[in-house]
Amino acid sequence: MKRPLYVIAALVCLGFPAGADETSIESVIQRQLDAFLQDDFSTAFTYASPSIKSLFGTPERFGAMVRNGYPMVWRHAEVRFLDSETRDGRVWQNVMIRGADEALHILEYHMVKGDGGEWKINAVRFREAPSGAV
Question: From first to last of its 134 residues, what are the pLDDT tens digits of the chain?
């Protein structure tokens, strides 16, 4: 009788890391979004991957790119986490963001593991919002 309990316990434990990773990914993205609302580009920059940090060099240049290229991320009115996907070995988190102008955007965040095992944001790109989405 103990054997089935061990199997069930093992299956339950194996299920936790994926959920924990999803929560961790969402937390990283949310913390960066919170930093953008405060114009705290230094903190927002800490959630960027090493390649993004290398590309922009400073939090100020990174912040300018976000303000100009992703104003709905910089000044969002609503954030909703959608599904996450693994495509070609890459982890993507889909996020619905409503900008301050009330326009709806679906973005996908490419997430990578940092040296310490923490999630970092490696890229953000637009996806087409479903037609009729409110």
Answer: 555 444 344 333 433 344 557 779 999 999 999 999 999 999 999 999 999 999 999 999 999 999 999 999 999 999 999 999 999 999 999 999 999 999 999 999 999 999 999 999 999 999 976 666 55
Nearest to residue 49, comparing CAs of 126, 119, 104? Answer: 119
What is the maximal distance between C-alpha atoms in the chain? 62
CATH no. for residue 93?
Answer: 3.10.450
Residue 28 sits in which domain range?
2-127
- Cα dihedral 130, 90, 99, 97 sign: positive
The pTM of the full predicted model, rounded to 2 decimals, is 0.80
Look at the chain and report how many structural domains it folds into: 1
Residue 133 inside a domain? The answer is no
